[in-house]
Design brief:
By secondary structure, the chain is an alpha/beta fold. The protein has a single domain (19-239), classed as 3-Layer(aba) Sandwich (Rossmann fold). The protein is 32% helix and 14% strand. Helix 3 packs parallel to helix 10 (210-219).
Length: 270
């Protein structure tokens, strides 16, 4: 099949199923081009912090499901390392899912809040009861965890009347959702030392997810952009207001030479 035949076939398929056009418009390459056009200094992504400078030599992640829709072990290790800091006492997250992230940080904190869509709203989206009931699996019985229900696009964050030391944004990963959540967090929930972590800034540790990245850049106030970083070997972008300036940063390139190796011990818990 030559190029002209492929074009004709593609047009026929789009006419039959117009939603296929979204696959072209929403390609990651197009989002990356939008980032590069609007923010030329970020065309290769955020400056990267070596994960070893945050985790140290060892950290235990538990619970961990090894199931779809979750985080990398390094993502949860990153959150846990931040939660163990002496100046971090409370935590807020957008997007609960199985509750893995909040279950990992809660042992080290005074109180934790997690916001997710209500069961009724999830059901209205056509999601199955099995999927809906999987939410809060690890976090439902944790005493210092408060489960909030609401849509972050319309939720009254200011009504919480509280600032948080550590915030995890892991809700809607479309551009509009990321932009909205970022704006809401920085307008209502941060203080001068708050650490903010975005999940799925990258598809994998070596490839930026352009749609999420643009949502972050368009949502965060300009004065805070200088404190944005990507943590190596993770899917996470972070806002760190007090980064140790002695840490050597580097930029994303593919393929990356491994900075260090990791040793993983898999232990099955009851």
């Amino acid at each position: 099949m030559n190029k002209l035949q492929k074009v004709i076939r593609a047009l026929k398929d789009i006419l039959k199923q117009p939603s296929l056009l979204n696959l072209i418009v929403e390609r990651n390459e197009n989002w990356e081009n939008r980032v590069a056009s609007k923010y030329p200094k970020y065309k290769k992504g955020l400056p990267i912090i070596p994960i070893t400078s945050i985790l140290g030599n060892e950290i235990e992640v538990s619970p961990y499901a090894f199931l779809d829709g979750g985080s990398l072990p390094t993502d949860l290790g990153l959150l846990k390392a931040f939660a163990k800091r002496d100046d971090v006492k409370n935590y807020f997250e957008i997007g609960t899912w199985r509750g893995e992230s909040i279950a990992n940080v809660s042992p080290y904190l005074n109180d934790c809040l997690t916001l997710n869509l209500s069961k009724d709203e999830l059901k209205s989206m056509g999601l199955s009861d099995d999927y809906i009931n999987m939410h809060r699996y690890y976090s439902k019985d944790l005493k210092n965890v408060t489960h909030l229900e609401g849509n972050s696009l319309s939720y009254d964050f200011g009504g919480l009347n509280k600032k948080f030391d550590l915030i995890f944004i892991d809700g809607d990963h479309h551009y509009s959702g990321v932009k909205n959540d970022t704006e809401s967090v920085f307008e209502n929930l941060i203080h001068e030392n708050t650490i903010v972590v975005w999940h799925d800034y990258a598809y994998n540790p070596e490839h930026v997810r352009g749609e999420v990245f643009l949502g972050i850049l368009d949502g965060i106030p300009e004065k805070y952009k200088k404190n944005l970083y990507h943590v190596s070997n993770s899917l996470c972008a972070v806002y760190l207001p007090n980064l140790d300036q002695s840490i050597s940063l580097f930029e994303m390139d593919y393929p990356q030479t491994p900075e260090r190796g990791f040793k993983i011990n898999i232990k099955i818990e009851d």
